[in-house]
Amino acid sequence: MRFLLVASLLAVAASAQAPNDSGLPLEPEQAAFDATYYDLALAVDIDTRTIDGTLLMEARIVQPTAAILLDLDAPLEVTAVEEVAYVVGSGDEVTLPRAFERTGNRLRIRLGRTAQPGEGLRLRIAYGGAPRVAPRPPWDGGFTWTETADGTPWVAVSCQVQGADLWWPVKDHPSDEADSVRVALTVPSELRAISNGVWEGRTDHGDGTATERWFVSTPINNYGVSFGIGPYETVEMEYQSPLGYTATVPFFVVPERVDDARRQMPSLLADLDFLERTFGPYAWRGDGYKILHTPYLGMEHQSLVAYGSTFEDNDYGFDWLHFHELAHEWWANLGSAPDWRDFWVHESFASYSEALRAEDIALRAGGPEAAEAAYLAFMQGKRGNHRNAIPVAPRETRTTQQMYALPDGRSNGDIYVKGAWVLHSLRYLIDDDARFLAAMRSLLYPSAAHEAVTDGRQARWVSTDDVLASFSRAADRDLSGLFEVYLRQPETPRLAVDRDGADLVLRWLVPEAAAGAVFDMPVPVVVGGDERRVAMPGGVGRTPVPEGVEWAVDPNGRILVDLAE
């Protein structure tokens, strides 16, 4: 079970959840329980675009409570709630109706008693209605109802930003992941219904519908539970892991893209090989790895990566969309942020992994110089998209919306690209690729013993403070000042450059919001065609540059800096 108890002092929030937001501070009736298992049976009516669902939730009480609070999008109606208990002595199951009330996107269930710490709780909830239609999936999520090229229904769901309560009752906070999840989808019998984990079978009901059942045996975040419905065909390929195991990887794809999927599969499996070599074992081997063709761009659904891109490699030799979403199996699903204030741990690390992938491909094709050129060019391509409007990693608790959207309505790409540049800068600071990559890997797998685990127990919470500690160990020094400037406040640090006789004098200008932070990032300077590393003790450094010799500060783009005018 993956559960982080958030202090009740952070849980003072309005009783009605803000529309379509995820990860609000936990209220006491949410913090009082740990959801351990969800069993969801969902019938999808494509003609009416409605769903009819039953959820069985198992939970462990961690604080005394007379009620519990779940999230469920307001358009979906709850028709009944029962507690499922057992008769003492006989073990027979008995169901006890429970009173409930809806307020906005919240479902409050009265237990009729004070549930005690350590007690188990089983609730069955019947609900249904017309779920939210996704305005701009996957970022503005919900259901996507569309058709394939021949007019066959094609349905999918995406909910990272708004949360899984868009389509099922859930404790919608990143700090609580169920140990396991079962999903049964009833759909028109001519269609497939694909979900996460291991396929448990299909039942044809003889009435034009069929049910497919899937089981996830490992801890999973709620937005990582998903499905696709359509006339899926299966393209399979054997994956030979660098760790010594073999697995069959299926790509569930609509008919008109089968040939594209077959052509692209070797590239996609090469992504998996690289990520295992770089960051450690694929964690969900018991649940398998699957790729699901979706009518939206993509998402990192655990063991079921959603793919809706172009079935092509980019100029660096890999399919960026598949690679990015697959990288999230490490940076999001294995190492997960316990609060959305640490969202960059998911997105920046996955984005930076793309640069490492570009570097690795170039290394194998052209050697070290080609690898460095590809890596630096890739990072430079991400340099112009920084917003500098809010901190990459604020200290205060945040929701998904607060991290994704800026106050002026623009999207916040800094949790992707600016955070990736912070990692890029830390690599230059540490100046030892083996130590740098080991620091990244240790966030997911602190030891060889952790890498030997395959049943989900290796899943970890990773916060910004964990990242700071890991890279400080790699650098053999305290990096809190650098994190304060780069991540805890929004502005990019500026560098002033002056002449003092035959010397070039460099001085870091720390933003006011980080005043007092020790920021001594070394600076690369090219003098006469040779690159040198200028130490910056106390934020000031100097290097000799004779008159008439050409020089440039960081022309290759190795650190995150703005040059002062």
Q: Which class do the helix and strand fractions yield?
A: alpha+beta
Helix share, percent: 10-25%
- Widest beta sheet: strand line-up: 6-5-9-3-2-13-16-15
- Report the major sheet: 8 strands, mixed
Mean pLDDT: 94
Report Rg. 25 Å
**DSSP helical segment count:** 11
| Shape estimate | globular
Q: Which regions contain 5 or more consecutive residues with pLDDT less than 50?
A: 5-18
Percentage beta strand: 25-35%
What is the terminal separation in angstroms? 53 Å
Count all strands and give the number: 31
Give the helices and strands, then pairings.
Layout: E1 2-3, H1 28-31, E2 33-45, E3 50-61, E4 65-71, E5 77-86, E6 93-97, E7 100-103, E8 106-115, E9 120-129, E10 142-147, E11 153-158, E12 176-177, E13 180-188, E14 192-195, E15 198-204, E16 209-216, E17 227-230, E18 233-240, E19 246-253, H2 258-279, E20 290-293, E21 298-299, E22 304-307, H3 320-327, E23 335-336, H4 344-366, H5 368-380, H6 400-404, H7 417-430, H8 433-444, H9 448-451, E24 460-461, H10 464-475, H11 480-486, E25 494-500, E26 503-509, E27 523-527, E28 530-534, E29 540-544, E30 551-553, E31 562-563
Parallel strand pairs: 2-13, 19-20, 20-22, 23-24, 25-31
Antiparallel strand pairs: 1-12, 2-3, 3-9, 4-8, 5-6, 5-9, 7-8, 10-11, 11-17, 13-16, 14-17, 15-16, 18-19, 21-22, 25-26, 26-29, 27-28, 27-30
